[in-house]
Amino acid sequence: MPGQPLTNALTIDVEDYFQVSALAPYIPRHEWPQRPCRVEGNVERILLMLDESRVRATFFTLGWIAERYPQLVRRIADAGHEVASHGFGHERASDLSRADFCADVRRAKLLLEDISGQEIRGYRAPSFSIGVGNLWAFDCLAEAGHRYSSSIYPIRHDHYGMPDAPRFAHRVQHGLLELPVTTARFLDRNWPASGGGYFRLLPYALSRWLLRQVNDRDGQPAIFYFHPWEIDPGQPRIPNLSVKTRFRHYVNLDRTEGRLRRLLTDFRWGRMDEIFLRRGMAAVAA
After folding, report:
1. Mapped to the 3 state alphabet, what secondary structure does the chain carry?
2. Count of beta carbons in the 10 Å neighbourhood of residue 4
3. What is the pLDDT of residues 28-39, one digit of tens each?
4. Phi, psi (degrees; rounded to nearest 5) at 11
5. Per-residue pLDDT tens digits for 222-265
6. pTM (2 decimals)?
7. How many CB atoms lie within 10 A of CB 163?
8. Rounded to the nearest 5°, which phi and psi values hold at 148?
9. How far apart are CA 128 and CA 125, in angstroms?
10. 70-78 and 39-53 are packed helices; what angle lies between their axes, rounded to 10 degrees?
């Protein structure tokens, strides 16, 4: 008899549309407070969708958002989801000094713990910006008290990526558990299979097939991610974007929620901490 299907990790990076790294050249950081925020409404839609599907997830939440919308963080926690850290100011780890990165990590963790009443165990670097040039970032995460990171994307990409990194859960400095977002292995190369812009761009059937390959062939739980702004086709359009940036940011926004609803029924989903911090999974990764 076939075994029970694996439970995969559903993760949401809680940031608003104007905080996306690819839009940084077009939206100065000092303009953020003046931009119309849409994250509250989008997260509420996500929470309703998850409640309808009886799915619990991990919300990697930006400190900048939590500071302005503490009630949103409490809603996430009260609904039974894991609150994790996305750092405070959505600055790429690779753009910060060690001291500044450590300070950003500590500030976000303390704030999120104070608001949510939860221990903040997990961290995800903005734009998966931990790589071979700044592995010291794991020291900062461990020193701050994080138990796991999901900050490496083992693919080749023009904005991020560490293609030679292990594809699945593994230990890094100080026993910290690194949980890379999911890739599928074909033709001696890692291919994205974990959400984000690829989920909006690729046909849903292909995304579903890639995730099943990871579950069935590799025997590993997948880690899938998306952003609240990706279910929001009504978000303000930013003028004068390059063709590539405009395509990447806006492609298929009107289809994402429907695809996510299918995804929630086609696979089993859960929180990062409950899947990967169990004793059995920790022993496999050690």
Report:
1. CCCCCCEEEEEEEECCHHHCHHHCCCCCHHHHHHCCCCHHHHHHHHHHHHHHHCCCCEEEECHHHHHHCHHHHHHHHHCCCEEEECCCCCCCHHHCCHHHHHHHHHHHHHHHHHHHCCCCCEECCHHHCCCCCCCCHHHHHHHHCCCEECCCCCCCCCCCCCCCCCCCCEECHHHCEECCCCEEEECCEEEECCECHHHHHCCHHHHHHHHHHHHHCCCCCCEEEECHHHHCCCCCCCCCCCHHHHHHHHCCHHHHHHHHHHHHHHCEEECHHHHHCCHHHHHHHC
2. 6
3. 999 999 999 999
4. -130, 145
5. 999 999 999 999 999 999 999 999 999 999 999 999 999 999 99
6. 0.95
7. 14
8. -150, 160
9. 5
10. 0
Tokens of 70: 């503490």
192-216 pLDDT, tens digit per residue, is 898 999 999 999 999 999 999 999 9
Structure tokens at 128: 């998966």
d(C-alpha 112, C-alpha 104), whole Å: 12
Place of tokens 């919308």: 69
- Amino acid identity, residue 146? H
Average pLDDT over residues 127-131: 93
Q: Is residue 141 scored above 60 in pLDDT?
A: yes
Only one residue has tokens 């590993």, namely 220
Residues 169-194 pLDDT 10s: 999 999 999 999 999 998 888 888 98
